[in-house]
Amino acid sequence: MNLDLEELSAWHGTGGDRSSVLDRVSIALASGALGAVLGPSGSGKTTLLRTIAGLHRDASGVIRLGGHRLDGLPPERRQVGLVPQDGALFPHLTVAENIDFGLPRTERRGRRTADMLALLGLTPFAKRLPHELSGGQAQRVAVARALAPAPRLVLLDEPFSALDATLRAEVADGVRAALDETRTTALLVTHDQGEALSVATQLVVLAEGRVRQTGIPSEVYAMPADLWTGRFIGDANVLDGESDGAVTLTPLGALPHDLGVPGPVSVLVRPEQLRLTATAHTSARVGASGLARLTRYFGHDGLTEIALDSGEVVLARLGPDAFPAPGARVAVTVDGAVRVFPRHHQSYPPER
Questions:
Q1: Is the overall model pTM greater than 0.90, yes or no?
Q2: Closest CA to 113 of 96, 94, 133
Q3: Rounded to whole angstroms, what are the CA distances from 281 to 276, 284, 314, 335?
Q4: From residue 264, how far is each of 12, 157, 250, 256, 344 by CA, in Å?
Q5: Percent helix, strand and coil across the chain, each rounded to 5?
Q6: Distance set, CA 236 to CA 12, 220, 268, 272 (Å)
Q7: Strands 59-65 and 3-12, how do they pair?
Q8: What residue ranges define each of the domains in the chain, with the CATH number in brackets?
Q9: β-pairing, 153-157 with 80-83?
């Protein structure tokens, strides 16, 4: 079922004490898609889910699921499954009984429960109580319980945040596979950028209750709509420059772009776009030079600080065998297109 939100607003309080939480949010999520809402704390992510589910009533706007309006319907008539952050399993019920709970009485202890157990890899744990499960197993039970009644939409409120990094990825992959198998449309709220980029088929960036950008994750990362979004998603080097409309002069050299607007600009360069070479082997195309400083090692790669001769400090993402020694002199070039914004676009919070 496709989900369409039109000018959805929500608030807390009444009268003069009313404060806005969501401000005219519009989102279109295709049937069977897994959308991720990414934003900082306080941006309205959880309120968005609660409003869609019918649990937050101080709201206006239109919510459509499969073309049918949900706003105005009580929660039990929306056919929306909600997976809260803590899973909220019933401690006195077994795994199978927890999954059974959301089904009509006539369907309990039947094939649907067995199918959900198998789909989420929970069959061996069917008779266990929640306190006998690991965190990842408990979250999979919560998802299985939400999927059991075959809802038209599943809402997941930071369901993996309490898990360690390795387990989080494993459980997220299992949940995504289950959603794909059941062709269920889902909306995931998270503050974890890596999770949002790797799991979702559509990304929504939310800040101060407003949508900053929506699109497939790779496009939002590579082509952020504004400077704030570019800085919020992933690591970024942001440098001041002066543009003639086609080329911007920056501390990293003259960088071509397609902004088409001359004047003072802010240039966003991803760390993986920087190429380092020893200064003894540089060519005339070198844009800048500087000294290597601290490296943050992540195993599969790392970020190395480069103090440019111009005074700025930039980050370069390098493979584990490519780190320059601290104090080594390097030349820096930029590989690929950069994003350029008029200087005033870096404002945050978004203008009302």
A1: no
A2: 96
A3: 10, 10, 21, 17
A4: 40, 41, 11, 14, 9
A5: 30, 35, 35
A6: 35, 13, 6, 9
A7: antiparallel
A8: 3-227 (3.40.50.300), 235-346 (2.40.50.140)
A9: parallel
State the Cα angle at 186 between 158 and 161, rounded to 5°: 10
Compute CA distances 8 → 23, 56, 150, whole Å.
7, 12, 26
Amino acid making up residue 256: P
Looking at the DSSP bridge assignments, the partners of residue 263 are 243
Tokens 């709970």 correspond to 101
CA dist., res. 139 & res. 135, Å (int): 6
Q: Which residue has the higher pLDDT, 346 or 219?
A: 219
% pLDDT > 90, the chain: 66
The mean pLDDT value for 289-304 works out to 93
3-state secondary structure of 207: strand
* Rg of the chain, C-alpha, whole Å: 24
Q: Tell me the pairing of strands 3-12 and 19-29.
A: antiparallel
Q: Answer yes or no: are the C-beta atoms of 174 and 199 closer than 8 Å.
A: no
Q: Is the pLDDT of residue 279 over 90?
A: no
Digit-coded pLDDT (tens) for 316-328:
999 988 899 999 9
Max mean pLDDT among 3-17, 74-88, 210-224 falls in 210-224
Please report the DSSP string for 235-297 in residue order. Answer: --EEEEEEE-SSEEEETTEEEE-S----EEEEEEE-GGGEEEEEGGG--TT--EEEEEEEEEE
In the numeric block, the tokens 């019933």 are attached to 90
Q: Which residues touch 227 (CB under 8 Å, ≥6 apart)?
A: 238, 266, 268, 341, 345, 346
- In angstroms, rounded to a whole number, what is the distance separating the alpha carbons of residues 247 and 154? 46
